[in-house]
Write a structure and sequence with these properties.
alpha+beta, GMP Synthetase, Chain A, domain 3, 3 strands, elongated
Length: 123
């Protein structure tokens, strides 16, 4: 996973030699957190307009993690940021994933309810 992130980010930035990816387990051991550090000039390139680039990187890594049966969190360390801000970003990512999973589950339940209603009307 780390190599995947490094490959993607290195091909986006102007200073690929300064790309550093660190990997650590979350406190609850439920996910692996990948922290991307790039040259300060490249931070905007990695984030992209309205955060589209970093969101895409997160989505790609999330899909790769799902295929491996794991969870992954990707954060971008901006110059001058501290550990507290990064943890908050990780928490937001996890919350976002949980909301998405909840919405998918609700859609599945709605489909089942609709099928049951159709079965009752046919009887």
């Amino acid at each position: 996973m780390k190599q995947l992130i490094e490959y993607i980010v290195s091909n986006i930035v102007n200073h690929p030699e300064s790309v550093i990816i660190t990997e650590e387990q979350t406190e609850d051991r439920q996910a692996t957190k990948y922290l991307i550090k790039v040259d300060p000039e490249d931070v905007g390139r990695v984030i992209g307009k309205e955060g589209k680039v970093i969101k895409s990187i997160r989505q790609i890594v999330r899909i790769a993690a799902i295929q491996k049966g794991t969870r992954a969190i990707v954060d971008l360390q901006e110059e001058g940021s501290n550990k507290q801000e990064n943890t908050t970003e990780s928490e937001k990512e996890i919350a976002s994933d949980l909301v998405e999973e909840k919405e998918e589950a609700l859609e599945d339940v709605a489909e089942v309810i609709e099928e049951k209603k159709e079965e009752k009307t046919e009887d």
